[in-house]
Amino acid sequence: MNQTQVNKQTKQLSVTTTHFSDWSFVPLVHIEPTEARIGVNESVELKVVYSFDPEEIFVPLPNNTTPLNQPHPMSSKYLKKWMHSGAGTLTTDGSKAQYKAPAKAPAQNPVAISAEINFGQQELYLVVAHITILSEFHIDYLQVDETEVNLPQLKRGSQLFIYGNFGNDPGKNKRSVKIGNTELNVTVWSPKLIICDIFAEGPASSGEVVVSADGETSSKLLNEWLVDLYYAKKESPDGSLTRKTRFVLRFRGDAIGFGSGETDPLLEYTDIHRSGKAIIEMPGGTFSNAVTNDACGTYKVQWGAINAHATERSPYSTGKGFNGRLFQTAAGFGVKIKFRSGDILRSTRSFSPCVGDAYSNIVYEPVSFEGYHEEIIWFLFESAAARTPIKAGAPPVISGTGVAPGLFWDVEDVNTELFTTKIWWEKAVPKYD
Question: Average pLDDT, stretch 173-196?
C-alpha cells in the first residue's frame, strides 16, 4: 500500500508512519573533505564515507559500527567509479583517492572530484567534492575584528583581516578589495596580510571578498550565521519560576581553511558582534512551599511576566549589560558571555506563619547569565566547507544551581537536583548556503 501522498499545488509531501521519531537530514553518502584549498603541486586525500540509521540502513553494517550520523568508510564494492573534471591527476584505491594539483592554477577552478555509488539498486548516486588550487597570489582565510573603538584619539568600526599571499603594495590605484560592488577601505597592505574597514551590517558586511592587484585576483567567501542561544535557570521544583533569556548572536567568519597558510591569526578574540541582543521573555509564575521546622509556615514567591525585554550588546570594555568575547577556530566559533539585566523581575515574597500574621513584600530583581562564567561556549561547524551550517548544541545541564529568593525548605526536603541551569541552540544555516 502506498503510504505517501504528493500535493503538487501546495508542494507538500505527506508520509504515513507507524511510529513517531525525531527526524533530521543526514547526508547518507559524501566525500571527505567536501571542499578543500591546496597549492600548486600539492595533494589532498579523499574518501567516500556514509552515515546510517541502524534501524533502516540498506548498506550492510560492518562490525563495531560507529554511532548514528558519524561518517563511516564505505566499502569499495559500492563504489562504481571515481571521476574528476579539470586539471591535475587523480589516483584511486577503492573508496579512497588522492588528488594532486597541477603546477599552475588552472582556468577551471575549483576542480570537481566525483564518485559514482551503486547500492545494488537501479539508481546511481553521485557525490562531489570541490578542490580549489591556489595560485601564488591568493587568499588563505578571513577573520573579522568585531571590536569597535570609540576613543578621542581613535575611532574605528569593524575590520576585515585577509591572510594570504599578495606581494608588495602596488599602490592605491593598482589594487582593490571588494565585497560585491562595494570597495573596502584598505588600511594595511603587506605581502601576507591585508586589513580593511568593513561595515558591521548591510549588504557589504559579508559575501564574496575579492582582492585584486596588478592583474591578479583571488576571492573567498566571508559567510555569516545567526544563532539563538537559549538560557533557562529553574528556581522552583515544578519550573513555574524559571529565569529565561534568548541571546541573539551573529557570527561572521571563514568556515574553510581558517588558520591555514603561512600566517597565524592575529586576533585571539574580539567583541561579540554589535547587533547581539539579550531578550528576556518570561511568563509569570507562582510557587509555595510549607516548612514545619524553623520558621514554621508557608513561603510563597510570585513572579510577574517579562515581555520581550531587550538588552543591546555593549562593548566588552564597558562591562555593562550584555557583553562578551568571540573566538574563532577552524572548527567553529566560541563565545564567552557576561549578562546582567537591570532590576526588571517583579518578585512578590510572602510568608504565612503557623502562628501569627502573614506578611508580604515586593522586590525587583535582575536576570543574569549564571553557571557558565568565564566558560567558552562552542558553536561548531557541521563540516569544513565555506557554506556549512552550525550544529545544534546543548551542553550538559547543571544541577544544584539555587532556588528563587524568598523560598525555603526544611533541610531534609531539599532536593538540589530539581534546580537546574541549561543552555541550548538549534542548527543555524549560513546566510550564503
Answer: 96
Q: Are residues 107 and 164 in the same domain?
A: no
- Residues 297, 370 share a domain: yes
Instruction: Render pLDDT for 385-419 as a digit per residue (tens, 0 to 9).
Output: 999 999 999 999 999 999 999 999 998 888 999 99
Cβ proximity of 344 and 334 under 8 Å? no
User: Cα separation of 19 and 267, whole Å?
Assistant: 50
What's the start-to-end Cα distance of the chain, in Å? 37
Question: What's the whole-number mean pLDDT along residues 363-382?
Answer: 94
Domain that holds residue 273: 225-425
User: Is there a single domain that holds both residue 361 and residue 262?
Assistant: yes
Identify the DSSP state of 237.
T
Closest CA to 408 of 286, 236, 232: 236
Residue 395 sits in the same domain as residue 270: yes
Q: What is the pLDDT of residue 156?
A: 82
Radius of gyration of the chain, Cα coordinates, nearest whole angstrom: 28
Residue 433 lies in a domain: no
Give the separation between CA 111 and CA 195, rounded to whole angstroms. 29
The 10 Å CB-count burial string (b at 16+, else e) for 303-335 is bbebeebebebbbbeeeeebbbbbbbeeebbbb
Closest CA to 339 of 251, 272, 395: 272
Around Cβ 364, how many Cβ atoms within 10 Å? 11
Say what the pLDDT of residue 3 is.
56
Alpha-carbon gap, residue 375 to 325, rounded angstroms:
11
CB within 8 Å of 207: residues ≥ 6 apart: 179, 180, 221, 222, 432
- pLDDT bracket for residue 77 (50, 70, 90): confident
Instruction: Answer whether 98's CB lies under 8 Å from 44's CB.
Output: yes
Mean pLDDT of the chain: 89
Cell numbers of 51, please? 552515515
Residues paired with 196 in a beta bridge: 160, 186
Q: Looking at 222, 247, 281, which one is the last position of a domain?
A: 222
Q: Are strands 216-234 and 207-213 parallel, antiparallel or unpaired?
A: antiparallel
CB 80 within 8 A of CB 95: no
194 and 233 belong to one structural domain = no
Question: 234 and 204 in one domain?
Answer: no
Residues 121 and 178 both lie in one domain: no
Q: For 282-302, b where at least 16 C-beta lie within 10 A, e where not — what string?
A: beebebebebeeeeebebbbb
